[in-house]
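Quick entry between incubations.
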Amino acid sequence: MWKYSAVLLAALIGTNSAIAADTAPTDVKINEGEISSSLTGKAGDPASGREWYAGRKLGNCLACHQTTDLKELPFHGEVGPPMDGVADRYEVAELRAILVNSKEVLGDETIMPGFYTFKAGVRVADKFQNKTILQAQQVEDIIAYLKTLKE
Amino acid sequence: MAKSRNSIASILAAAGIVAAGVYGTASAGPDDNQLIVEGQSMVTEAAAPEGVEVEKIYSGWRFRSSETQSLQMDDFENPAMPLVDIGTDIWGTEDGAAGKSCQSCHNDASDSMKGIRAGYPKWSDKRGKPHTLETQINECRTDRMEAKAWKWESSEMLSMTALVGFQSRGMPVNVTTDGPMTKWHDMGKDLYFTRVGQLNMSCANCHEDNYGNMIRADHLSQGQINGFPTYRLKWGGVGSSHRRFKGCMENIRAVAYKRGSDEFIALELYLASRGQGLSVETPAVRN
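Done. Structure below.
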């Protein structure tokens, strides 16, 4: 319930998206499992996305998802589905929504963190308070990279 | 932190210790190896206790590499065993104003401490809450020996909990969760299922829903605590279960509870109850 209120509240307060380049996490609206426009107004860079995807302090996506394209790196996780061919399975707008806050798309039970949301667990460590796991452009870059992973 | 995790992972990989989890070698579930320590067979799998939503319960030993497993099968190789020896020395050494040692009241630890670890945490009327082994040992020290309490993670405390726990090795975990312990069990259960930290995960997300799966270089176990205090290769030493809880919470980018806090005592009780029937393996070896 509160998550809808947060969206509504953000809408009522108004946004500064007209000035700021990035859409603030509280202003991002997931509509039927999709976010249609870029969080930054810019396209993502797949080469950078590949780096954020593997980076342990960034997306660390590889911790859970096996990815043949990154087979030069050790330790691919098995917690989530493999990402091979993900470009054929999801549209950009769907991938964006899953990355921003997976729980609003995949359901509350998913283990997958939301990478561009303040909706976190209790007792968030001080240095991560009111911070998202990824920056808006990093999300866009990872989406661009995922769209290169075709069957 | 990422750097040290990286370097440890690469050292283990270079040493051939981590075989699973390298790209392309999927490893699902616990293995079928049998844990026999010094000729004594350990129960490393058992029926899930009532209310625990897994098919079976498994000791963390079953999720480790064969190299790590073998370290626990031979007491001469077990890097935690020196602490048991140190604990034995402390047991017989007088300390505090009352001029007593553990032995003054409890005689031979191998008799008097048999089965004790298996039943902890345990309700204490005097304390009005459960005792862990650590708080019980400190109560003995301050009230009977008139000696200073030990810090939770001190080498003295770890040596003593290792010595006491060792006397239950091979005996089934058997904690009481009814009566005054009900409230503590339920509090621990709540904590187990509460999502914490920026990564927004609960204990259950990894250790109930995903045990057996690799998460990066780590083969997820069920988070059983029947081997504590445990020698952990990552620590290069022996540590308490509360130290492990703290590390887990920090990995999820949460503010961890303190060692010895009511929350961690409750969690320790609940986790012990999820492992009812597994053998106490103290002191175990993990990665």
